[in-house]
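Q: I have 146 residues here and want to know how they pack in 3D. Can you give me a structure?
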Amino acid sequence: MDLSSSTLWWLLAGALVAAELATGTFYLLMVALGAAAGALAAHAGLSGTAQVATAALCAAGATAAWHFKRARSPKSAPVESNRDVNLDIGQHLQVPEWLPDGSARVSYRGAMWSVRFAGTGQPAAGEHVIVAVRGNEFAVQPAPAR
């Protein structure tokens, strides 16, 4: 059985997509896009050299475009204060009293949690908002007036 060059390019593209799924390296999808461009060049009847050049240029262009797109996008918040990572961030809780070191124990979601004051000024009892999760401790600030 003799495989055409376009079939080999499509098999390479499929293998690269499978490798991306196994590793999570998004850039492999850009290289797979280049392999698909090589397959289309083979379908168009271009020479082997032109197929490789088409695949390389398409893969390099797609990789560069993705790299520059990611470089220009806004950076996400640190993990400890990123609501996409921890849904407790932004939730309200009641702090009955503060210890002199700026910490307290509060009941939150049916369990006792340690909290540490992360606002400005002196901590005062009342409603607070979780702004970060550091290990097993919440960093809180006073809740804005409603």
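Q: Anything worth noting?
A: The helical segments are 5-23, 27-43, 48-72. The chain has two domains: 5-72, 79-142.
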